[in-house]
Amino acid sequence: MIAGIVSIAGITTSFQALGQVVNDKESRAADDIRLTDISYSTQNLAYVLSSSFISFIMQIITFIVMSGYFTMVNKISIPSDSYLPMLGFMLLGAIAATLLNEIIIFFIHSSTTFSRLSAVIGAAAGFAVAIYMPYGTLSSGAQTLVKLVPSSYEASALRSLLLNKISNNQMPASMRQSMINYLGIHFKIWGHQLTRLETAYVIFGMIVLLIVIVVGLSYLADRKRKI
Where are the domains of the chain? Predict the structure, then answer.
C-alpha cells in the first residue's frame, strides 16, 4: 500500500502542478512570456523542474505520513537502510511522471478539459501502478500496459525495498517467488526478472526517451510560433 500510494502521489501531484501550464495558456500569460527571448523549451524546463520538485516533496510527505501510521498502529518497522534508495527511486519517479504528464498537458488548452482529465488521471494512476488490482491478477496484455508507465517501476522498487527483509527472513523461497509475481515486486522483461538496479536503469532510460519527446514537441511549438 505504501509503495503504491506514494507512486500515485507522484503522478497526481505533478499533474496538478502542471495545471499552471494550462492556466498560462488560457490567460495568455504564456503569450506574454513568449514576447521575451525565453524559448518554449526553456519555459517548459521551468515547468518540469518545479513540478518534479513538488512531486518529489509530496511523495516524501506521503511516505512519512503512511509509514508513521503503520508504525504506530501495526508496529511495522521499516529498515533504515532502505530510506536512501527509496528517496532515489522517488526522485526518478517524480521526474518521469512529470515528463509524461508534460506530454499530456501539451495537448490541453482549457481548464475545463484539464479538470476532467485530472479525475481520469487520478483513477488511472491506481491501475497503472498495480495497487487497485495486484499485478499478478492482471492479464498479460494489462501487465504490458502497466510496464509502459514509468511510475509502475518506482512502485515495484519501493515494494522490493519495503518487503525485502520480511520476504527473506520469514518466507520459504517458493512462497517468496509467488509473492514477487503476485505483487509485481520485480517486473520481468523478455523473461528476465529485473533487479532493483536494473529497474533504476529502466526508469532512467524512460526519462531520456520522454525528454527527447518533450524537446521535440517544444521545438515544433517554437517553429510554429516563428512562422
Answer: 2-226
Cβ atoms of residues 62 and 8 within 8 Å: no
Cell 536512501 appears where? 84
pLDDT, tens digit (0-9, with 9 covering 90-100), for 10-21: 999 999 999 888
Q: Residue 84 burial (CB < 10 Å; 0-12/13-18/19+)?
A: exposed
Rounded to whole angstroms, how far apart are CA atoms 118 and 87?
26
With left for phi above 0 and alpha for psi between -120 and 50, is residue 186 left, alpha or beta? beta
Amino acid making up residue 204:
F
Q: What is the pLDDT of residues 124-143, one digit of tens each?
A: 888 888 787 888 788 888 88
Span 207-221, pLDDT tens digits:
999 999 988 887 787
Residue of 110, 63, 70, 116 whose CA lies nearest to 88: 63
Angle 24-26-29 from CA coordinates, rounded to 5°: 40
Nearest one of 126, 124, 130, 13 to 62, comparing CA atoms: 13
